[in-house]
Design goal:
Blueprint lengths: L2 E4 L9 H11 L3 E7 L11 H10 L3 E7 L7 H7 L3 E5 L6 H10 L3 E6 L17 E5 L14 H14 L5 E5 L4 H10 L3 E4 L1 H4 L3 H19 L1
Parallel strand pairs: 1-8, 2-3, 3-4, 4-5, 5-6, 6-7, 7-8
Bound molecules: D-xylitol-5-phosphate (DX5) and zinc ion.
The site of D-xylitol-5-phosphate has 22 residues, from strand 2, strand 8 and helix 7.
């Protein structure tokens, strides 16, 4: 099952609640929430109070992408705020195995994100423990960047790796998703699609409906 997870990083923050409501009404199942610390990535986005406010207004699955150093410091706090999926970067964790278990102990789904240049081999011993792998298809830190072409092969290799191990792990892609790259990532085996500017760059409801229907069309053709 393919899911769309619009990233609020590209939203108009003066109308954040309203724009989230629009994508929710359009029928998206997940909401991608990018937390940046100005250390792991150059930029700073937003943090706990924003998530707490949104949680009061939205029933969506909160897919929290932590682009922060030493995320183990904040797992319980994000879990308490109502994050449903918590994704940490392999590059930001000295003890990745421990952090994965920490997320699960908090009762949440655990995701591991890999920067474009990070090899899939870091997943060798933990793949069967994670609910989702996030393949960054741009260098994290900013919305609106171009999709890195070598990502497609990386997604394909990861899907093969999961299948060979009998795993149906979610593969999320994040960065530079547009109509053209959506097709590439879906064909390669991604099933959780983050879309920032593609959805929130214009009318969010219309953007969400457009991408939901492109996904639906892909799934219909696959049958
Ligand atoms: C980038 C963030 C993304 C970002 C994607 O570091 O992780 O989630 O919002 O934006 P687009 O879809 O515009 O590339
Ligand atoms: Zn993200």
């Amino acid at each position: 099952m393919v899911r769309l997870s619009p990233s609020i990083l590209a939203a108009d923050f003066t109308k954040l609640g309203e724009q989230v409501r629009q994508v929710e009404e359009a029928g998206v199942p997940w909401l991608h929430i990018d937390v940046m610390d100005g250390n792991f990535v150059p930029s700073i986005s937003f943090g706990m109070p924003v998530i707490a406010s949104l949680r009061e207004k939205s029933g969506l699955v909160f897919d929290v992408h932590l682009m922060i150093e030493k995320p183990e410091r904040y797992i319980e706090e994000f879990a308490g705020l109502g994050a449903d999926v918590i994704t940490v970067h392999a590059e930001a964790c000295t003890h990745l195995d421990r952090v994965i278990h920490q997320i699960k102990a908090a009762g949440k789904k655990a995701g591991v994100a890999l920067n474009p240049a990070t090899d899939l081999s870091v997943l060798e011993y933990v793949l069967d423990q994670v609910d989702m792998v996030l393949i960054m298809t741009v260098n994290p830190g900013f919305g609106g960047q171009g999709y890195i072409p070598y990502s497609t092969e990386k997604i394909r290799r990861l899907r093969r790796m999961c299948t060979e191990r009998g795993l149906s792990t979610d593969i999320q892609v994040d960065g530079g998703i547009n109509e053209k790259t959506l097709k590439l990532v879906l064909e390669a085996g991604a099933n959780v699609i983050v879309a920032g500017s593609a959805v929130f760059g214009g009318d969010p409801g219309a953007g969400a409906r457009k991408y939901l229907s492109l996904i639906e069309e892909f799934e219909r053709q696959k049958k």
